[in-house]
Amino acid sequence: MGSTVARKAICLVVALMVLSEPSLASITDVNPTDKSLEYLRYIFGDAINIITGGTGPANPDSIIGALSEILNTGMLVFTGLIVSYVFVTGTLNSAHEGNPLGKTYSTMWIPIRMISALLLVLPFSGGYSTMQMGVIWLAGHGIGLANSTWERALDYMSGTGSLYPPTISINYENIGKSMLESRVCMHGVNTADRHVNIEEKPVEMVNNNQNSNMASNGQTQSTPAVANHRVQQRYDSRYNLASAGLAYSSAWLSGFPNGVPRSYGANPCGSVTLEFAEIDEGIAIEPAVISFQQSIVEITANLDEDLDPLARAIVSKAVDESQPDPDITAFNTAIQLYKTEYERIANEAMSSIATIRINKWASANPDAAGTTMGARDAGWITAGAWYWDFQRINAETQTMVNVKPKMEGPTEDARENDDYSTFESALNTYFSKMQVQDQYGNTVSALERSSYAEDDWSLDKVLSMSKASIDLALTNPDPVSGMANVGHALITAVEIGYLASIPVYVAADTASDVADATGGFTGGAAMAIASPILSLIEEGRTLLVIAGILLLPIAIMLAFYLPATPMILWIMGVAGWFILLIEAVIAAPIWAATHAMPEGNGFVGQRAMAGYMVMLSLFLRPTLMLFGFFSSMTLMIVMGKVVMLLFLPAMSSMNAGHVSGLVTLVAFLAIFTALIIQIAHRAYGLIHEVADKVLRYIGGGAENLGEANNEQQSRSIFVGGAAKAVDGTSRHRHMMGGQPGGPTGGPTGGPTGGPGPNQPSLGGSAKNVASKGMSKVSKMLSPST
Q1: N or C: which end of the chain has fewer CB within 10 A?
Q2: Would you call 127 helix, strand, or coil by DSSP?
Q3: Are the C-beta atoms of 277 and 400 separated by less than 8 Å?
C-alpha cells in the first residue's frame, strides 16, 4: 500500500514538473481576457491573478476570501494540534522503542509532511491559504488546457471544413452511363447518316453575372432560366428544320457524297444538367462557392471527354464485328477518376468555407444578436453556444457538395433512326459485361450486383411514405435539426389547419342561420343541406383540436427544446465545473491539514490521497467536456445513419404479411420520433458523462455533479408547461363556447357562456379522450423515460 501511494505521489510531482516546463506549459497558458477568468474574478476576487502570473491582493476582496480567512485560521490551529500530537507521540515512542519517532512513523516523511501541512494552511493572498491558491492556479491552467483544445478543434474545422466526412450522395455511375448513352447515340446516328447531324452544344444558365466567368471552354451564355445556377451538357441537332432542308437539297444534287443531312429536333441524344444548390453564401464565401462550381463543371466535362473513345469503340463494334471488343474496364476507370476528383474538390471547398466562417467568428459574429464575442475570443466556456454554427457549416457544405444531376436520355426522334437499335443493343451488351465497383469497393462484373425482393404492395406503400417522412426529418446531416424541422412543420400544420377552419365554419354557420331565418319550403330545403355540412365541419374542428392537443407538446419539444439540449447540458456542465471549483477551494485548507495525519507512507498520506484525484478532475474537466461536446455531435450523425440502416428494414420484417395502412404509418413515425429523442439525450449526455466517468480508469471516483438530473427536471417543466398551456387553451375554448365571439361564445352562445345549439364544444367523450391523451403525452416525455 505504501509503495503504491509513493508511486502516485511521484507521478504527481513529475506531472507538476512537466507543467512547469516552458516548452509544454504554453498549452496551459491562459489569456488574461479569457471569459472564464472574468467570471472567476466575480467569485474569488483578484486572487485569480495568480493564474496569469500575477499576485493577489493583501486583504480579502471577495466574500469567499473573507470567509476563507477565518476558516484558514481555524485549520491552522487544527494542523498545529495534529503536529503537536505527532511530536508528543513520536517522542514517547522513541523513548519506549529506542527508534526515532518509533516504529510506526517514518522518520523521513513525517517531518516533511508536518512542515508541508503547516505551509499549505498559512495565509497567502486575499484571505486564501497556500493550498487554496494552488487549487485556483491548477483550475486556471485547466482552463488553459481547455482553451488549447478548443483552438485545436477550430483549427481542424478550418483545415477540413467539417467535423466528419460529408455524405456525398452523387451517383457517379449514373452520370457516366447517361453520358456514355448520349455519346453512343451521337456517334451512332452520325455513323449511320455518314454525316455530323448531332454535336455537342453545352450551355450555362445562371441567375447573376457573378458566375458568368464559368461560361468557358466552349460553353455559351444564355438568358437566365431558373433561380439556381445550372450547367447543361447537351447533344443537340446541328441543323434546324430550315437549315436541314437546304443542306439536304444541296447533298441530294451532288449525290450525297458526305452523307445525309437531317434535323433530329432539340437534344435528340439527351442531356446532363448539373444544378447547384443555393446556400447562404454572403459576400465572404462567394469566391469559394464559385470556385467549387467551376471545378465540378470542369471535371464533369473531362468525364464526358474520357468516355468518348469508349463510345466510339462501342459504335465501331456494332458496325463491324471484326473490330476489337470495347475495354470493359474503361468505364469504371473513368468513373473512379471522376469520383476521386469530385471528393478532392469538395474537401477543398469545405475547408475554404469553414476557414472563412471561423475567421468571421474570431472577429465577432455579427449574425448573433446581442454578442460581440467570437469563438476564439471567449475561450472554451462558450463552446456550447457554437453547436449550431458547426452544424450550419456541415449542413451548408453538405448541401453545396451534393450537386443535383438531371439526366435526359435520347429522344424518339433519334430512336427513329433505322440503325439506332443496333447501337443501343451494343451499349446494353457493354453494360452487362463492364467492370464496376460494388458497395464494398471491390471491382466486380455488373451482373454480380444483387437486388432485394419487393415487399407486399400495402407494406411497400407504407414504407415509402415512412421513408419520405424520415427523409424530411433527416434533411440536415444532424438528425436533431431534421426533427426540429418536423416539429415546426407540425406546429405550422396545426395552426394553419385551425385558422383555415374558422372562415369555413363561419360561412357554414351563416348559411345555416340564413336558411333558418328564411323558413318555408326554400328555407327547409336549404337547412337540410346546410345542417349536415355544419355538423361535419364542427366534428372536423373538434378532431382538429384533439389532434392539436396531442401533437403540440411533442411538436414544441421537437421544435424548440430538443435543439436546445446541447446548450442546456453544456451550461449545466459549466455550472458543475464552477461548483466543483468552489467546493475544492472551500475544502482546500481541510485537505491541507490532512497531510499532517501520520497514517501511511510517502509524501501524501492515506487520507490526503483522494483529494489529488479530485484536483485532477478539476484540472481536466473543461477539456473532457469539450471531448464530450464534439463526440456528441459526431455520435448523433453516426446514430442517425444507424437508425436509417436498421429502422425501415426492421419495421418491414416486423409487419410483413399484414395489411398496412394509416395506423401503421403513424405507429412507425411515433416509434421513430421516440427513438431519436432518446438517442439525442443519450448522445448529448456525453458532455457531462465523459467528465464524470473517465477518471474511473485510473481509480478516481465518478464526480457526478447532477447535470443529467437538472436537464431532466428542465425537460419536465418545459413539457409540463406546454401541456398545461394547451390544456388550458382547450378549457378556455370550452368555457367560451368553443368558437370566436363574445363572452357568451358568439351570437348563438348560451346564456351562461356555454356553446349554443349550433356550436361544438370539446366536451363529453371528446374532452375525455383529449385529457387522457394529454396525460399519456406528458408521461411519455417525462424524465422517467
Answers
A1: N
A2: coil
A3: yes
What gap in Å lies between CA 588 and CA 585, rounded to an integer? 5
| Other C-beta atoms lying within 10 Å of the C-beta of residue 63 | 12
Q: In the structure grid, which three cell numbers stand for residue 698, read together?
A: 485510473
Whole-number Å distance between alpha carbons of 683 and 169: 25
| Residue 570 one-letter amino acid | W
Q: Which amino acid is at 165?
A: P
Query: Three-state DSSP class for 171?
Result: coil
pTM of the model: 0.66
The DSSP code sequence of 464-524 is HHHHHHHHHHTSSSSHHHHHHHHHHHHHHHHHHHHHHHHHHHHHHHHHHHHHHHH-HHHHH
Which residue is it, cell 519517532? 101
Q: Which three cell numbers stand for residue 762?
A: 370539446
Beta strands in 36-189 (DSSP E): 123-125, 128-129
Q: Which three cell numbers stand for residue 565?
A: 439540449
Helix (H, G, I), strand (E, B) or coil at 200: strand
Average pLDDT of 130-154?
Answer: 91
Q: Provide CB contacts within 8 A for 535, sequence distance 6+.
A: none
Mean pLDDT of 118-143: 91
End-to-end CA distance of the chain: 44
What are residue 656's phi and psi, to 5 degrees? Answer: -65, 135
Spatial separation of the C-alpha atoms in residues 369 and 180, rounded to whole Å: 52
Q: How far apart are CA 598 and CA 45, in angstroms?
A: 35
Q: CA 466 → CA 457, 494, 639, 672, distances in Å?
A: 14, 20, 18, 10
